[in-house]
Design goal:
The N and C termini lie far apart (41 Å). This protein has one domain (3-322): Alpha-Beta Complex (Spore Coat Polysaccharide Biosynthesis Protein SpsA, Chain A), CATH 3.90.550.10. The strands form four sheets. Strands 1-11-6-9-5-2-3-4 form an eight-stranded mixed beta sheet, with helices on both faces. The chain has a two-stranded antiparallel sheet with strand order 7-8. Strands 10-14 form a two-stranded antiparallel sheet. With 325 residues, it is α/β, with parallel strands linked by helices. Helix content is 37%, strand content 21%. It is globular. It contains eleven helices and 14 strands. The longest helix has 21 residues, at 251-271. Helix 2 runs parallel beside helix 6 (134-145).
Length: 325
C-alpha cells in the first residue's frame, strides 16, 4: 500500500467507541444534524431503526435534530411503520415535483437535501438488522469534532446470509469484484476505504450540495471520487461500527448494481481531472434467465442518469436563502 494511504489510515480511521454521545454533544454546539433513511419496501426493518435513533439520539440525548424517511414508492407499509416509529416521512415524488423522479437510491439521496436542513446529513440504509445507534454516532464523530473532515464512511464486517448458512465476510461481492479493483486502479488514494459502497455515511451539507449524484447505485462510488477531487483525501475519514446485517440481492440484481457503478466510474474517467464535460453512456444491460423454452433475454435500463450539484438547482438556492444559509 502506498505511504499516503497508510498514513491516512492511521490518521483518519477510528472505532465507534471513540465517539461516545456525551463527547459529541459537547462538540455539537449550534450544528444541526439530519439523519435520512432512503426506503423502498422496508417495512420489516425501518421501524426498529427509527425507534433506536429517536429513543437514543433525539429523546435521551439531543444529538439528532431531524429524522426523515424518504419513501421512494413502497408498496408495503414502509411509510406507515416509519411514521408510527417517530420519523417524518416524505414521498420522493413530493420533493421537487416539477422534475419527474427516476428510480434509484442516488435520486432519493439527492432529493433529500431539499427537505432537510442539517449542517451535517447522515444517510442510513433502511434494511439494516440488529441496528445500533453506533452506526450514527460513529459517522458523526469525526465531523462534529474536526472541522477539516467533510465526509465519513462507516466500515464493518458484512456477513452473507443464505437461509441458515452464514458466510462471515461474504456480503461485499460487488465491493470486492468491481468497486475495489476500480478504485485501486484509477484512484489508488481511495484504496484505504474498507466499505466504499457502504450505505452509512455522513457529510457536511456544504460538500453534498456541490456534488453530482448518480441516480442509482453508483452514488457511493461517485461521492468518494468527487470528494477526493474537490476536497482531497484528508477531508475523508472512516469509522468501524462492527457488523452490518442486511438483505442481499440475487446475482442479476448484483449485475445491475455493478453496471451502474461502472458507468459512474467511466463518466469520471472521461471527464478528466476538472470534472467537466459529462459523457453519455449506454444505459442498457442485457441479462439472461432460463425458462421452459431455454434462455430468455432481458434488457434493463441501469440508471446511468446523474443529477447536477444541488447548489445549482434554483429551488434549492431559493430555499437556502430563506433559511439564512
Amino acid at each position: 500500500m502506498q505511504p499516503e494511504v497508510s498514513a491516512w489510515l492511521r490518521r483518519r480511521s477510528s472505532v465507534a467507541a471513540d465517539w461516545p454521545v456525551d463527547k459529541l454533544l459537547d462538540a455539537k454546539r449550534d450544528t444541526r444534524v439530519s439523519v435520512v433513511l432512503p426506503a423502498l419496501n422496508e417495512a420489516a426493518t425501518v421501524g426498529d431503526i427509527v425507534k433506536v435513533i429517536r429513543t437514543e439520539l433525539i429523546e435521551r440525548a439531543p444529538l439528532v435534530d431531524e429524522l426523515v424517511v424518504i419513501d421512494s414508492g413502497s408498496t408495503d407499509d414502509t411509510a406507515a411503520v416509519a411514521a408510527d416509529a417517530g420519523a417524518r416521512v416524505v414521498h420522493r415524488d413530493d420533493i421537487l415535483p416539477t422534475l419527474a423522479a427516476v428510480r434509484g437510491k442516488g435520486e432519493v439521496l439527492w432529493r433529500s437535501l431539499l427537505v432537510t436542513d442539517g449542517d451535517i446529513v447522515a444517510f442510513v440504509d433502511a434494511d439494516l438488522k440488529d441496528f445500533s445507534a453506533d452506526f450514527v454516532t460513529g459517522i458523526l464523530g469525526p465531523l462534529l469534532t474536526d472541522p477539516t473532515v467533510r465526509l465519513v464512511k462507516a466500515m464493518y464486517d458484512r456477513p452473507l446470509e443464505i437461509g441458515d448458512t452464514i458466510v462471515p465476510a461474504g456480503g461485499g461481492r460487488v465491493t470486492e469484484l468491481v468497486a475495489r479493483p476500480l478504485l485501486n486502479l484509477h484512484w489508488p488514494e481511495l484504496a484505504g476505504f474498507v466499505q466504499p459502497l457502504g450505505g452509512e455515511y455522513a457529510a457536511r451539507r456544504s460538500l453534498l450540495e456541490r456534488l453530482p449524484f448518480p441516480c442509482g447505485y453508483g452514488v457511493e462510488t461517485a461521492m468518494l471520487v468527487d470528494t477526493l477531487r474537490l476536497a482531497g483525501l484528508d477531508a475523508m475519514a472512516q469509522v468501524d461500527v462492527g457488523v452490518r446485517r442486511h438483505s442481499h440481492q440475487d446475482e442479476a440484481g448484483l449485475g445491475r448494481m455493478a453496471a451502474e457503478i461502472l458507468q459512474a466510474v467511466e463518466r469520471r474517467l472521461r471527464r478528466g481531472p476538472t470534472g467537466a464535460h459529462p459523457v453519455e453512456l449506454s444505459t442498457a444491460l442485457t441479462q439472461f434467465e432460463r425458462d421452459e423454452d431455454g434462455f430468455r433475454l432481458r434488457t434493463h435500463d441501469v440508471a446511468a442518469r446523474e443529477r447536477p450539484p444541488m447548489a445549482t438547482v434554483p429551488e434549492y438556492r431559493a430555499r437556502t436563502r430563506l433559511v439564512g444559509r
